[in-house]
Amino acid sequence: MSEVEEDPAQLLAVLATRKADWAATPLEDKYQAALEIRSRVLEAASRWSRVAAHTRGCSKEAVAAQELPLMLVPLANYLDNLLTWFSLLGWSTSTEVTLASASQGAQLRAASPAVAVVRSVGYAPVESLAAALHLAFVSGAVVGLVLPAWQAPLQLVMEYIMDPLARGAFFATLLAADDAEATALTSSPAIDRLHLVGFTPDDFGALAEAAGGADALPPLVSGEVHGPAPWIVAPGPWTQAQLAHHSQVLAEAAAYAGGASPYAARLVLLPTAWEQADAFVDLVRGELAGYKLPAAVDPGVAQRHADFRRHYPDAFVSGAGPRNDLIPGVGPCPPWVVNVLEAYPDDPASEPAFQTDPRGPVLTIIATDAGSEEELLISFLDRAVRAVNEDVQGSFGMTLVAHGATQKRYAAQLDAALAAVRYGVVVVNANLGLGLWSAQTHWGVHGGAAEVAPGRTLRLGSTQNSLLYDEGVKGVVRFPFETYLHILPPEYRSITMRASRQLAVGIVDGMRGFLRGLKDKSWAPPVTVGEGSGGVVA
């Protein structure tokens, strides 16, 4: 349906006329649409990765190669689960046996006509697209996906992937020229449901104020509740090489998309009594000190960065210059800030490092007291779990890093800590982005709902809920302490586009997909960015 030059308000009005038709669409037709979208995800993965790298202001091939599996794996796995549900419900041509439970069957059958709009903050295009898929195929809504102007290059490739829905006017990308237009779209009376990706309570409050009050928003607002996305680093017998490796993993988790991703690392807790704590902090600081400044693609990053620095004037500030592959016309981010707090704050509720998501080049590290040496891990875990549960804003996701020997010796204590944290998804030994790879995780707000404004509840939000849980279900995704899947800066581990695609297709389609990728010569169509158009020409 949606030609990119069309007015977004007009596109939204057209969607509203089509919601009853989509709700009444036979499930066999929806199955076929989902199947075609999965095929298009694989076809467009290489194109997406290059365009996404451009959107982040980078032209280096290694940056694009890192983007490819982060898009292809979660979307393909998510669609695979949805297609399995359709098959088990008996609408696939490959089976006539209905095996799904009545609860899941009712969700897919009983679609009420609705217009849903997805809006994100920061850099979260894959998660926004996953939310749009869920709203369309599980909730049965026609969907408009609001894109900020700085993400305009992604619009054409999104339209290509979602064409099976867009050509029937069941999906449209809504390119907003500025925040005012985005707010007008998300508060339109034509909308029945608004889904927010990456929003903190402060972001929700700002949106409600801009819209003229929370009551001006649609009757149903869903989303995750984001915050600083904390990391807990458990003490253990780390070698120097392991310290260096995980300092690179953490630095890259903080630096992804210039820190604009709502899933980037912002806050790290480690124990003061750990004899390697100082060495680890020095290595992380050294990594970020050497990071060349990426593009300042998010227009609000300079102000958020300045606000954070005013609160922490003594924080380390990098002197690194800009990257050498920035897209012309896009300036660099502000310098990296590593904020090391020597003591746990007396009033965490007033600490910006605990309560805000600067969505920029900022990382805070805090060492907490943790008792005697022999009780170090147990006492630290207890303190750290209470900290992330009670003092840190948000309940979406967090990371726990633990050495293999520590996991073996203290398995019961670590399992208890994982069970106690009140976060929607917990990733062990990797960043939150890798947790999205598993289509089994829910990626919803922990506990099912949260009050984000007086009298206004943000209901269960599902960026990814392909198992059709009725309520919020915490997901724990475990990785080895050291794994090739760890995302490192390109200078430490560079991967070609072809190898990246083969790896990603092998993950989602197994050996058959991997071997098919070896023979596929059309996997990476050339892509250039049209000068002045904001579009992409393939």
From TrEMBL:
Phylogenetic placement of the source organism: Eukaryota, Viridiplantae, Chlorophyta, core chlorophytes, Trebouxiophyceae
This protein's name: Aldehyde dehydrogenase domain-containing protein
Top-level taxonomic group: Eukaryota
GO MF term list: oxidoreductase activity, acting on the aldehyde or oxo group of donors, NAD or NADP as acceptor
